[in-house]
Automatic annotation (TrEMBL), chains A, B:
This is 3-isopropylmalate dehydrogenase. Its main location: cytoplasm. Belongs to the isocitrate and isopropylmalate dehydrogenases family. LeuB type 1 subfamily. It comes from Neptunomonas marina. One of its GO terms (biological process) is L-leucine biosynthetic process. Residues 4-354 form the Isopropylmalate dehydrogenase-like domain. Substrate binds at residues 97, 107, 135, 225.
Length: 358, 358
């Protein structure tokens, strides 16, 4: 049965890295007779330039129709100063997440042994690091209403946003996290600010409720400030972490950076049926766009996650991941993960190497 | 002119560490003829146990009447499960901050050269680290209304909080940060999430406006997720950072932990007139309370900040800071900062050493 993959190159280094991931996907499509077809559409700044909006109707329709989506990255200084807040690249990304109900964001922070030196942390603190952050992606303060800027008395402006979760939203992401923990080392840490924020008091309560259905998983709670500290102090204490949209944004980036090689980290954003959008954890890096310097491996590994979670092609995913490990063993490095004695390669040369390894 | 210092020991290790700081204050009070008088009051869990509320009226009155306040720490598992959200230790702390208008929170993250090895980060990444985080402390989502847990349709509960700042609140904390940057290395990084949250779009706008009054300070902006990453990747790029209450809570703890010795870090919370509350950055550490293991130096350094900022006794502050540096040079260490070849001392022995050095 043919399956359709929508490719959204986006902005900055997006097109370059996605191009390499597409080569890899095309190859395993043949090797494993996956019967994948590929479409491409505009999103983010590229869509603003072409259609005047960050998420054109045609892109949204294509995203809804697709079986899975591979995204490069969105955003750049060119569009950052747009006075209309709705016409920013990020709104394209947020629009897909929310319109497609991609509430379950999986962000692994894994230290590749070959890149252990790349971390700014001492080897003993991070060696073997393997954390999975489960971030709620379609609720919380990112989407809460009311929101905006209004005038108070005497013309004083005031900006406001609403941090809101209902128990169903919490339960839904909680289940994803408990299931993930069950499939890993059975430790789940739920991160909140229940000593200050009522919305996270409810969060904690629902996590406690859910824990009864997962007696094999050890649930703990941590305040977000402490979690940020513990990620720096002793990150290996964590197995799976679950948290809301905003805290997840912050903590997953901090966790990713612990590895020192954010150019290696993929992510998945899933709906209730396992359909998903896949993208690298890093951003659009406009400063190096078009120079062939970007690391395509996070996007290639995102393609692997896509094959595993949304396209029922776990074997192809395994093979891609093994190929990535192999090119690292061959000492090939893009600039972001370069170190002494290694061989520096360009974006497309890295793609060549993965294709060769496959 | 006599000045009154209110001492709030609080919970956990609070009483032990505050006792050592009080010895130090009493001594410099004599040495510099500062004419300080001391009062003590209950706050947090200790106040709940004694008065049924975390911030008794008498404590609040004493706080208002004092010229400066020295706080140990509040909180502990004993009170964490209190079903009434208003009767939690943290509410005592938040109540003082808001009732006294202590909006300007200064949190230095400094790496003591003697403790460089204590960091989990590589020496070259953190040596010489000296960041000041300026956190807004009486607004934002911590205090925003409306807030609570309510029932939506069909009895589904929903928790909600409001993230709100008006332009005056932003301007006020912005000025504190610009002034601090001017007195340091003239680099200010304002942290927001202006690509998603309207309230921080206003935040960024006001910071830009203020920048015109401080042409000698270089202002930059960073998204909070990136800031969390950059603190791990290259923390020495920062001089002063300014941000709202919630982001400041998270980032200041992460920054503090970069030093590996959070037991060394003081903080100040100031009102418009420079009156303030001073407290260590670390928490109440209930697990080691009463064992003489706690590090009193952050509290002693908080007392030094108090002398400098609220009691017009900069010389006494300098002397205390020099004494702390001296005891570190003498290789004395409490358990939290202990390392090979050093001499482990108890809380009161550390206090003895600082007193001797004075
Ligand atoms: C680009 C931005 C809107 C987005 C977010 O904040 O969710 C990004 O930081 C991410 O984490 O995917
Ligand atoms: C105890 C808690 C309410 C407090 C806060 O979140 O502000 C603490 O974490 C801090 O940073 O001073």
């Amino acid at each position: 049965m043919a399956k359709n993959v929508l490719i959204l190159p986006g902005d900055g280094i997006g097109p370059e890295i996605v191009a390499q991931a597409k080569r890899v996907l095309t190859l395993v499509n043949d090797q494993f007779s996956l019967d994948l077809t590929f479409n491409e559409a505009l999103v983010g700044g590229a869509a603003i330039d072409n259609d005047g909006v960050p998420l054109p109707e045609a892109t949204l329709e294509a995203a809804k129709a697709a079986d899975a989506i591979l995204l490069g990255a969105v955003g750049g200084p060119k569009w950052d100063t747009n006075p209309d807040f709705q016409i920013r690249p990020e709104k394209g990304l947020l629009g897909i997440r929310s319109n497609l109900g991609l509430f379950g964001n999986l962000r692994p922070a894994i230290l590749y042994p070959q890149l252990a030196h790349a971390s700014t942390l001492k080897p003993e603190v991070v060696s073997g690091l393997d954390i999975l952050i489960v971030r709620e992606l379609t609720g919380g303060i990112y989407f809460g209403q009311p929101r905006g800027v209004r005038e108070k008395e005497c013309g004083i402006r005031e900006g406001y946003n609403t941090y809101v979760y209902d128990e169903n939203e919490i339960r839904r992401i909680g289940r994803v996290a408990f299931e993930a923990a069950r499939a890993r080392n059975k430790k789940l840490c739920s991160v909140d600010k229940a000593n200050v924020l009522e919305v996270t008091v409810l969060w904690r309560e629902i996590m406690e409720e859910l824990a009864k259905d997962y007696p094999d998983v050890e649930l703990s709670h941590m305040y977000v400030d402490n979690a940020a500290m513990q990620l720096v102090r002793a990150p290996k204490q964590f197995d799976v972490m679950v948290t809301g949209n905003m805290f997840g944004d912050i903590l997953s980036d901090a966790a990713a950076m612990l590895t020192g090689s954010i150019g290696m980290l993929p992510s998945a954003s899933l709906d209730v049926d396992g359909k998903g959008m896949y993208e690298p954890c890093h951003g659009s890096a406009p400063d190096i766009a078009g120079q062939g310097k970007a690391n395509p491996l996070a996007t290639i590994l995102s393609a692997a996650m896509m094959l595993r979670y949304s396209l029922d092609a776990g074997e192809a995913a395994d093979k891609i991941e093994a190929a990535v490990s192999q090119v690292l063993d061959q000492n090939l490095r893009t600039a972001d993960i370069m170190s002494e004695g290694m061989q520096e390669v360009s974006t497309s040369e890295m793609g060549d190497a993965v294709v060769a390894a496959l």
